[in-house]
Design brief:
Helix content: 55-70%
Strand content: 5-15%
Low-confidence stretches: none
Largest sheet: 5 strands, parallel
Shape: globular
CATH superfamily: P-loop containing nucleotide triphosphate hydrolases
Number of strands: 5
Radius of gyration: 16 Å
Number of domains: 1
Structural class: alpha/beta
CATH class: Alpha Beta
Strand order of the largest sheet: 2-3-1-4-5
Length: about 220
Amino acid sequence: MIITIDGPAAAGKGTLAAKLAEKYGLAYFDTGMTYRAVGLAMTLDGRDINDAAAAEEYARKLTFPQMLELAKNPEFRSSKNGVAASVVSAYPGVRQALLQMQRDFALNPVFADGTPANGAVYDGRDTGTVVCPQADFKFFITASPEIRAERRFKELQAKGMETPYAEVLADMKARDERDSKRAAAPLKPAEDAVIMDNSELNIEEMVGVAAGVIDAHK
């Protein structure tokens, strides 16, 4: 079983994906990690993330082990690297270079320890439209920019990162615009996706709605 969960930054995709993966015994793949890995690798090497050709080169060389190693860096989940990921993800060459890695996971999904899984839950921006259009279930999660910025602000605070809320909100809106207007796979729901606005929903309610859809058609 393949489940895709798409939506803008800080919409709650990752939390929902992890919960559904646990509930149904599926592997979990955050496709955003691939773009964060490219962005961070370039930053660490002192390369300009606005250099599309260089970004494509980094994407083509990226391996799963390298991505997992970069994910250990404290900056991997930072707001700054989130912006870098958004910038490099807009390059068609980068998306094409990483697409096969993302698609291959659906063919041979594995858990974090390497053991085989009977399916996967994808978390990203275009997993239901581009990466896995054949998915059994597709969800598009959203919420207002202000609510998403507040969530990300609290998340950063919990990690000891003192980024002003106004800056987080501005970055969120700029990222939304980049993601929705990029030529390669713009952020949008798949035609057959279930759209969920979780501005007023907690995680338990989100899981309930998604599980209701899945269980009704299994």
